[in-house]
Amino acid sequence: MKMWSGRFRQPLDPDFERWQRSFDFDCRLLRYEIAASEAHAHALKDAEIISADELISIVQGLQQILQRASASPEFLQDEEAEDVHHFVEKQLAALIGDTGYKLHSGRSRNEQIATDLRLYVRAAIDELRNQLAELCAVFVDRAEKAGNTALPAYTHLQRAEPVLLAHWLLAYVEMFLRDADRLMDCRKRLNVCPLGSGAVAGATLRLDRTLMASQLGFNAPTSNSIDATSDRDFVVEFVSALSQLALHLSRWAEEMILFSTQEYGFISLPEAYSTGSSAMPQKKNPDLLELVRGKSGRVLGHVTALMVSIKGLPLAYNKDLQETQEPLFGSTDTVLQMLPLVTGWMKLVEFNYERMQSAADSGFMNAWAAATYLVKRGVPSRLAHERVGKAVQLCLERGCELRDLPLPELRSLSPAFGEDFYEALSLLSVLAMHDVKGGTAPGQVKQAMAMARKNIESLREEVHAHA
In the chain, where are the structural domains located? Predict the structure, then answer.
């Protein structure tokens, strides 16, 4: 029996009925539907709509449905169920008789799906933040193992300055910690309970909304029934946060692809996450990295799909909102599948420390340090830049580095050059020069690693508190 069939005389067109069903994808909300239904049942008992015995029967029946679904996935292969709400009501009535139909007293599917989706997103955020903590920890582990190994940092994809490998790795930790914070902000805003909102105007029974919200771990009931049943801001915000995370993962993947080429030679791809060529026996391809880069596009597309689906909807609930579920589920699945794989990849990747170090110590990576040397001796910054630029031009003509230019020639460019200039060009000196908070000087990077550890631990504690 349909949940709405009393007013209708004709059956649905079979093709339309199959087309408009959502149970094939919203069945994943079953455990949240069960939890919300139990909270509603307790509120019905307190409002004296059902008896204590009926409450026990309903709760036991709901738990049996959940247990059967967990034990046998085939249980969810129901061609008649319109959606997860219809499925639960149908199965509950089959288990406990007409008492099962009492559960829908005073509520609407509009508030049910709004509640289920909030519970789903909240759980997904907790899992994602836990996985981000694990990923960040691996990045910091690799940073600590790298010691004082340096590599070139790039601007415009051209070698710019040397930085510690640890400093470069910590840049991604900063990105991923921001992603975790964005998800937490989203969690705070979504953690209100729509139960008791009815179809649009509020429940028709005096239900204790605060009790239902507390039972489900929400901070409070929603404040407006119209907004509660039509709001999908939290879905858009969540998937937008996932798109930012996907962007960071894609940027990381692209950089790793570049670094794995023979032209860079900074890393060796882990075989556990790579494949070969069916034609060229020598190939080892960066499949995980390329798929991360490619699958991030799905998440970006889902954000657009969500906003286009919602942008023209009048208040309150419209069936269009059903179309927000698949982009939500698709984005969540994509990122939840990627993060453990990226973590595993980072554990196994081999860094070519020698190649990195060599690249960081050549190609005029110390040119800004040379200009800074002059600035510290009173030469105006713009003039110092010009003098060192001319020195670089001399080196290019001779095929040498700045450290190879004789002091007399340097002094012909500026009398401020002294014997100690050559020591200022050493890789260690260039790194140490950036001794400011957030810089790549070894002491600063050591402090940054300690702070990253602290932030990761705080993230883990937050996730544990919500478990």
Answer: 5-105, 110-192+223-358+451-466, 362-448
